[in-house]
């Protein structure tokens, strides 16, 4: 499923020159109509909180005060004709909000009957360049998307830019619930909590096994039965899955949900090595796989950084998955993506149900759990890792690949997927390590490199594109 992330809250400002109010005649109506049309397109993928076409300092001042009263994520600017930069740049500096410039115009072509009035009605580029030059010189960050307002590819790019800026703003709302501490010796999980919050935004809260077990004991059994009935319809139930094993898995999912709610967390991580006792009972793998499909960020083994990273990606795309490159097929240039059990059920192939099965845990004395068997829907995916780097900053490393339509490996016993990366596996693996990639990653559907680059820039991260 796609998690319903909030639409970006946008203030849209159209700009022109005050002199034109007294000299441009019928062009004024054309510009106003164009701004209305552009606003309609913008409103199809953004929560348009405020919009205004401004010719004068007084109109810009009015817009500034209105924007201050709105909880706006992004300011979008367009020129309807030539506009002087200093009409708007001082206000942009004062508002200190992310800026996306949408450089467009009413006409898409220069026809054989082109006349001076057509030029008058469609001269927006110079004003945009005036504004961007001054923003550049003033060191005010901005994004820009150029293209005709009826071009769907342009609108998709614009929507991606705006969504990436909104996602960056959501970084301060990321909260990771950590159960069982961190896996001893896995140094790529190490981080400074104060630096994580100040340089990025996420925070973590730790809970122990007794608190988790107390939450399990408080689960409403009626809710367990309701979910069990739904599962019988949604999943394929493998022979041998004991009803009580399944019910206990559901209890543990509901317990995790209650703790996420209690701590207002939207990401989760679990270190199984500190939970290996018969008194703890079943490990909550079923819960993890289902909750990822409901928008909860996750990473295994107490990896708070990558759990936060997955939630950050969900804020951008609405869907992400925790994964790891487990092994390599050098002949076919494939990565084998898997983990102990954790994989987001939303990526599963659409032509077959996810199979629930009785799974023993490999440490003696631990009870069986409800395992899942499935593989990923064929298509394009983007793989992402966020890691600290020397110099008190973060780096985002990304590459794309294709999941081929191959026969399902029925002899494998848990969720997995095969990925053919954009470059040979040897090159990707070398570069990934040289740039500091950790052994946990997140994946998102589609090629989202452009949006990720915008997100990284807004977060102040370095961005490494391994496809190049």
Essential attributes:
single chain, alpha/beta, five-stranded parallel sheet, 37% helix, elongated
Structural write-up:
The structure is a single chain. The protein is an alpha/beta fold. It has 15 helices and 20 strands. The strands form four sheets. Strands 11, 12, 13, 16, 17, 18, 19 and 20 form an eight-stranded mixed sheet that branches. It has a five-stranded parallel sheet with strand order 2-1-3-4-5, with helices on both faces. Helix 7 runs parallel beside helix 15 and helix 10 packs across helix 11. The longest helix has 20 residues. It starts with 8 loop residues before the first strand and ends with a strand.
Report the uncertain regions: none
Number of strands: 20
Q: Helix count?
A: 15
Amino- and carboxy-terminal Cα gap = 31 Å
Biggest beta-sheet profile: 8 strands, mixed
Helix amount: 25-40%
Helix/sheet category: alpha/beta
Radius of gyration: 26 Å
List strands and helices in order, with pairings:
Elements: E1 9-15, H1 20-23, H2 27-43, E2 47-54, H3 57-69, E3 74-79, H4 89-95, E4 99-103, H5 116-121, H6 125-137, E5 143-146, H7 152-169, E6 175-179, H8 193-199, E7 203-207, H9 209-217, H10 221-234, E8 236-237, H11 243-262, E9 267-270, H12 285-293, E10 297-300, H13 304-317, E11 321-323, E12 325-329, E13 334-338, E14 355-359, E15 369-373, E16 379-389, E17 393-403, E18 416-421, H14 425-434, E19 441-445, H15 449-459, E20 462-465
Parallel strand pairs: 1-2, 1-3, 3-4, 4-5, 6-7, 6-9, 8-14, 9-10, 17-20
Antiparallel strand pairs: 11-19, 12-13, 13-18, 14-15, 16-17, 16-19, 17-18
Helix pairs in contact: 7-13, 7-15, 9-11, 10-11, 11-12
